[in-house]
Specification:
With 285 residues, the chain is α/β, with parallel strands linked by helices. It contains 10 helices and 11 strands. The strands form 2 sheets. The chain has an 8-stranded parallel β-barrel with strand order 2-3-4-5-6-8-10-11, surrounded by 9 helices. Strand 2, helix 2 and strand 3 form a beta-alpha-beta unit. The N and C termini lie close together (11 Å). Bound molecules: 1,3-dihydroxyacetonephosphate.
């Protein structure tokens, strides 16, 4: 069934488990992600991001994901991840996405509040939810998001006192925090600031989001959720896992599209099931 972020994150926050966002821009990725969630009776979040529009238009992704989410036997949020412009966020809402992230994290604090608050008013009137970001989550070199200066991630960490002011000022339904993770493949193991997550979670009632989930250890996930994270984003691992499975199958003599797409779906399904079990969201619906 089609859900929004509040439908899945408020119970997660109460039950102290995490719900995964797994971006899925084609049918194989979407079938792998939603199939895994259905098999484990878990809520799940699927979607695309502004940087993926060059691979699949918002219309294409909405046409694919919205009906799949409606038909699913578990709650599925169709989320527009890292929306960078008001126009594209509006387009996503008009196309039936039930949730958008409006990423104004590189704007000034005042602009970030003003822009997100405006989108929140519109999204809420449509029954959709909004995720926002305070501080800035960096990008590793190979990240689909592009690379950014990540030499000193602490420069961009989310300030707990400011976070309190920010959620009051914007009315955002979920808050992405900068606590040591980055998008893409880590060169060095990331060091998460669990204490900061805990401090922010104590100060604000809004569910917290951890970006850059690919490459974190099982322990990282467990500690982040225990500290107060309710939503965890993973994409790079899906992107790489599906391709590696296809390459291996190809080398083993499976050379048709039908064979290769099946291998891809199964590999993504296995990966997402592992994450769902780690996050504790299995059997929550
Ligand atoms: P990774 O690609 O590093 O898993 O990050 C995903 C993400 O945070 C998308 O918003």
């Amino acid at each position: 069934m089609l859900a929004n972020l509040n439908d899945v994150l408020l119970p997660a926050q109460k039950g102290k488990y995490g719900v995964g966002l797994f971006n899925a821009v084609n049918a194989e990725m979407a079938r792998g992600v939603i199939g895994a969630a259905e098999q484990l009776r878990s809520p799940v979040i699927v979607g695309t991001a502004e940087i993926f529009i060059k691979y699949a238009s918002l219309e294409n992704v909405a046409d694919l994901l919205v009906p799949m989410a409606r038909r699913a036997t578990v709650p599925v949020v169709v989320h527009y991840d890292h929306g960078l412009t008001f126009e594209k966020c509006m387009e996503a809402l008009k196309l039936g996405f039930t949730s958008v992230m409006y990423d104004c994290s590189t704007d000034s604090y005042e602009e970030n509040v003003r822009k997100v608050a405006e989108l929140v008013r519109i999204a809420h009137a449509l029954g959709a939810t909004v995720e926002a970001e305070l501080g800035h989550v960096g990008d590793n070199e190979d990240s689909a998001e592009g690379s950014s200066d990540f030499s000193d991630p602490t420069k961009y960490y989310t300030d707990p006192a400011q976070a309190q002011d920010y959620v009051t000022g914007t009315g955002a339904d979920a808050l992405a925090v900068s606590v040591g993770t980055a998008h893409g493949t880590y060169k060095l193991p990331p060091k998460l600031d669990f204490e900061r997550i805990q401090t922010i979670a104590k100060r604000i009632g809004t569910p917290l989001v951890l970006h850059g989930g690919s490459g974190l250890t099982d322990e990282d996930f467990k500690r982040a959720i225990a500290a107060g994270i309710s939503k965890i984003n993973v994409f790079t691992e899906i992107n790489v896992t599906g391709a590696a499975a296809m390459r291996k199958a190809f080398d083993e003599g499976k050379t048709t599209m039908l064979e290769l797409m099946t291998v891809q779906i199964e590999a993504i399904e296995r990966l997402v099931k592992e994450k769902i079990l780690l996050y504790g969201s299995a059997n929550q619906v």
